[in-house]
Amino acid sequence: ETGVTQSPTHLIKTRGQQVTLRCSSQSGHNTVSWYQQALGQGPQFIFQYYREEENGRGNFPPRFSGLQFPNYSSELNVNALELDDSALYLCASSSGLTRAQEAFFGQGTRLTVV
Amino acid sequence: AQSVTQLGSHVSVSEGALVLLRCNYSSSVPPYLFWYVQYPNQGLQLLLKYTSAATLVKGINGFEAEFKKSETSFHLTKPSAHMSDAAEYFCAVSGAEYGNKLVFGAGTILRVKS
After folding, report:
1. Best residue of A31, A105, A111 to probe chain B, by most B CBs closer than 10 Å
2. Were both Cys, which of A83, B7, B55, B98 would link to B67 (CB 3.0–4.6 Å)?
3. Out of B41, B103, B106, whose CB is closest to A41?
């Protein structure tokens, strides 16, 4: 059984640029959620995709957008990067929307905006 | 209001001593509750979860947590700390009030002294 994998593991971008982060969900999982973890803080929910449709969004501006593909992998896109976007971005997959379902997290992508 | 409050951003214990990490939640209905562990430069790993079954929940690596509705608490304990337990621990809540997402506390860094 393949776990959740994220790429790249580290990334450095300049303010104003755009970035795409990728996530492959665990086999059999159809739900992917993205979280932002700033230094010294707990993860904050960005949005969730279920069967290729956005299903819930946190308090993040529209320049944070995403996609989910037919194989349930997902992308997180951030436009017009700001210094405060520097964080660990975590992807989590689960099998369905039942709230008690265990979410499996990837290793994360460390984004640094300079 | 904070949905999840973790008391103590840093906890230090001696090897072999009791580990107690505190978590309080605010919810009008009993939520689903989780404890995750994060090792440096890694994603989150689920330790245990409460989903309205038994109030005492046993997890991996010898950890357990007790759901106390009257105290709105879900504290994490381990009878005897091991050096490998040094990590950051996050309490999280999910349920009807939170949509299909996990809401995390700010985290507690556990240090284990030899």
Report:
1. A105
2. B55
3. B106
Mention every residue, 6+ apart, whose C-beta is less than 8 A from residue A99: B32, B94, B95, B96, B98, B100
CA–CA separation, B88 and B111 (whole Å) = 9
Residue B69 host element (H or E): none
Taking Cα atoms as reference points, which of B86, B62, B64 lies closest to residue B75? Answer: B64
Give A84-98 pLDDT, tens digit per residue.
Answer: 999 999 999 998 877
Ramachandran bin of A71, using left for φ above 0, alpha for ψ from -120 to 50, beta for the remaining angles: alpha
A100 pLDDT band, cuts 50/70/90, is low
- Tokens 């970035």, residue? A19
Count of beta carbons in the 10 Å neighbourhood of residue A60: 16
Give contacts of B 75-114 with A, CB under 8 A: 90, 92, 94-96, 98-107
